[in-house]
Specification:
Blueprint: H1 2-17, E1 28-29, E2 44-49, E3 55-59, H2 71-80, E4 89-91, E5 110-112, H3 113-121, H4 126-136, H5 139-153, H6 175-186, H7 189-195, E6 199-203, E7 210-214, H8 218-221, E8 228-237, E9 241-249, E10 258-265, H9 268-285, E11 286-287, H10 295-300, E12 307-309, E13 316-320, E14 323-326, H11 330-336, E15 342-344, H12 347-352, E16 354-355, E17 366-369, E18 375-379, E19 382-385, H13 389-394, E20 402-405, H14 407-410, E21 414-415
Parallel strand pairs: 12-15, 14-16, 17-20, 19-21
Antiparallel strand pairs: 1-11, 2-3, 2-10, 4-5, 6-7, 8-9, 9-10, 12-13, 13-14, 17-18, 18-19
Helix pairs in contact: 2-4, 2-5, 2-6, 3-4, 3-7, 4-5
């Protein structure tokens, strides 16, 4: 009996020691609306769900590009894997200077290895990143060779580097391969923590000077943008334009974490704006709940201009470019879609389409309610009341042109200026 209790205790202990395996939900698309952008927004871009590794968006993701300071992620990865002592005191030397953005200190300034890493990651200091090679014991050539071996080990066949800081225009990567590099880099706490730090302060040990560094990633630094940044790195060269790799989610507790790479954006402001748009589009376009459905594929086959309805509801929608516009009343069917067939689809297919505003009357229509004699002219989405019969006739309209609609439909419009015989020139007739 005693041995049985021991056996049971042993089983409980073993079970407790086995890590709990959790399966993150895989995102699946719930709308057919594509991400709208122009070729000038970026040279290439890619969005990946961090947990499932699913690619949610890509554009020119295999296009070779100069990575600029995104190169520092590779150098930081190789340096941290050599397990340096983070509290060790080291010096920046004049030989670490390579131009561009730098930590502004004198030759021989001393700091901890941790301070050096934060300077390279938070402030993108080129001299701090270059110092990794000297301090590694590999020498500059040996360190760069180790960087290139590392990216090959990560499965990057295009990526190639000539320096540590990203100043060399012969450096190459792609958006897809930068996903792999960033994934490996941010997996190490020594890189992830500074890459998600907005500000960092430290003391130059031999002078007592206080240095305060602000992160170059505006998405991290600027609050209230609806983004919770968990890592990132910027890069710029005139030959490369503006580049960003960033890991983020909607809030601290939200599990919908994305890794986004944007290469070749024309300006910093454009780069951050397009990245924010990509993130919010991804969260709106994909669902992390439930299983994928064939409804996405079926919805994609429905042509623009189709009328659809559910089997258990009389509601009808007009489909146009991935959006559904509900017809608030049968008057729209009678007036615009006489004889047009209505396709009955499942509720899942209806939900794939993004809800847009209700279907509206075209400009140039004449409308009235059954409960009122007032006639309105539709112009620029507003109802302009026609002040009198003489004003109506002076415009050359016929009474049989008037569409009688329910009052609740008219109530969805805002009202514009009245039309009378003195201001009829302001009415732009719409040919029908």
């Amino acid at each position: 009996m005693k041995s049985l209790r021991f056996f049971c205790s042993l089983i409980v202990l073993i079970v407790a020691m086995v890590p709990i395996i959790t399966h993150a939900a895989t995102p699946h698309r719930v709308t057919v609306a594509n991400f709208l952008h122009s070729d000038s927004d970026f040279a290439s871009a890619i969005v990946m769900d961090v947990n499932s590794k699913e690619i949610l968006f890509e554009y020119n993701a295999d296009k070779p590009w100069v990575p600029a300071s995104l190169t520092k992620l590779v150098g930081a990865l190789v340096f941290t894997e050599r397990q340096p002592a983070w509290d060790a005191i080291v010096a920046l030397k004049a030989e670490d200077e390579v131009g561009g953005g730098r930590l502004r200190v004198d030759d021989g300034a001393t700091m901890s290895v941790q301070d050096l890493m934060y300077s390279a990651m938070v402030g993108s200091a080129n001299n701090a990143a270059t110092a990794f090679g000297r301090l590694s014991g590999l020498g500059m050539d040996g360190f760069v060779a180790a960087m290139n071996r590392k990216v090959r080990d990560l499965g990057c066949n295009v990526s190639y580097f000539e320096d540590l800081a990203g100043m060399d225009v012969d450096n190459r990567t792609t958006a897809r391969e930068m996903l792999k590099i960033a994934t490996a880099s941010f997996a190490r706490a020594e890189i992830h923590k500074p890459a998600s730090t907005a500000e960092y302060s430290f003391i130059i040990r031999n002078t007592g000077e206080l240095k305060k560094i602000t992160n170059t990633n505006d998405l991290l630094v600027k609050p209230d943008n609806g983004l919770y940044v968990t890592g990132g790195k910027t890069g710029f060269l005139y030959e490369s334009l503006n580049n960003l790799v960033v890991r983020l989610k909607p809030s601290e507790t939200d599990q919908r974490e994305l890794l986004i790479v944007v290469l070749g954006s024309p300006s910093r402001a454009d780069m951050f704006a397009i990245t924010e748009r990509l993130a919010k589009w991804s969260w709106a376009t994909y669902s992390w709940e439930g299983a994928p459905s064939s409804a996405i594929a079926e919805a994609g086959e429905i042509p623009n201009g189709t009328l659809i309805k559910k089997p258990d509801s009389p509601a009808v929608w007009y489909i146009w470019k991935g959006k559904k516009y509900i017809l608030l009343d049968g008057i729209f069917l009678d007036h615009y879609f006489q004889g047009v067939p209505i396709k009955t689809v499942t509720a899942d297919i209806v939900e794939v389409f993004t809800s847009a505003r209700p279907y509206t009357f075209d400009d140039g229509e004449l409308l009235k309610s059954a409960k009122s004699p007032v006639v309105y002219y539709v112009q620029h989405g507003m109802l302009r009341p026609i002040s009198s019969e003489s004003a109506f006739l002076s415009m050359g309209w016929n009474w049989n042109q008037i569409v009688t609609a329910p009052q609740f439909v008219l109530d969805t419009y805002s009202q514009g200026l009245a039309i009378n015989t003195l201001n009829t020139d302001s009415v732009l007739l719409t040919s029908r």
